[in-house]
Design a protein that fits this description.
The chain has 243 residues and is α/β, with parallel strands linked by helices. Helices cover 41% and strands 18% of the residues. It holds the Pfam family adh_short_C2.
């Protein structure tokens, strides 16, 4: 992935999990990373761990439309890629979802991605790549995931439309759509065999995904190695969609 050396990539949700590993991998490939996180403590921990002049940390609540636009538009730098990784999941039965649950899910998972891309668009160089972290939940109905499924389906629609509109600038836009990934939160949420068993039984590989198995496709989509891949939603789900 030598094509990423010297490139500047904005990564949201770098405080933990997949976003943290994406940022770390990009730095190891000599890319410059502008890492965004809502929480200061994990962001500062990552900054200390990387100890790299190629990493710039920005604490920002992406659900705040105006502050996000002002902060990102003030950046005086050309951008070669964006990874929209920040997201939330409210897992409740449909009849228990509140207006706040709905608004928070849509604001972070969909509206914030729209806002980040639109705010940075004047700074994005022709030939860049945008990768959105979607979910298999955009492609398949999941019990107690109504708001989450809706938000990720919207993100896939955003991906396809931007692939069409930004294609003339050679800006590629794709999403990756994982099933359960064993981040710290994933392990906590799916450690109960009674909960995990029914889903695992529908995955031909009979296991959940590892963080690296999402990070590597994201890095590939950011790189020139995927230069003719545009407008795709890539399931990373061990064959769940085939079962």
């Amino acid at each position: 992935m030598s094509s990423l050396s010297g490139k500047t990539i904005v990564v949201t949700g770098v405080g933990q999990g997949i976003g943290r590993d994406i940022a770390t991998t990009l730095i190891s490939l000599n890319a410059r990373v502008i890492g965004i996180s809502r929480s200061s403590a994990p962001l500062n921990d990552l900054k200390a761990e990387l100890n790299s002049p190629y990493f710039t940390a920005i604490q920002l609540d992406l659900s705040d439309w105006t502050n996000t636009r002002e902060t990102l538009q003030a950046l005086d730098i050309k951008i070669d890629g964006i990874v929209n990784n920040a997201g939330v999941a409210v897992i409740k039965p449909f009849d228990k979802l509140t207006e706040d649950d709905y608004d928070n899910t849509m604001n972070v998972n969909l509206k914030a991605c729209f806002n980040v891309i639109q705010s940075l668009l004047p700074k994005i160089t022709n030939g860049s790549s945008i990768v959105n972290l979607s979910s298999v939940a955009s492609l398949k109905a999941l019990t107690d995931h109504t708001a989450y499924c809706m938000s990720k389906a919207g993100l896939d629609a955003l991906t396809r439309n931007l692939a069409l509109e930004l294609g003339p600038r050679k800006i590629r836009v794709n999403s990756v759509n994982p099933t359960v990934i064993l981040t710290r939160m994933g392990k906590e949420n799916w450690s109960d065999p009674k909960k995990a068993g029914p889903l695992l039984s529908r995955i031909p590989l009979n296991r959940f995904g590892e963080v690296k198995e999402v990070v590597d496709p994201v890095i590939w989509l950011l790189s020139d190695e995927s230069s003719y891949v545009n407008g795709h939603c890539l399931p990373i789900e061990g064959g769940l969609m085939s079962a």
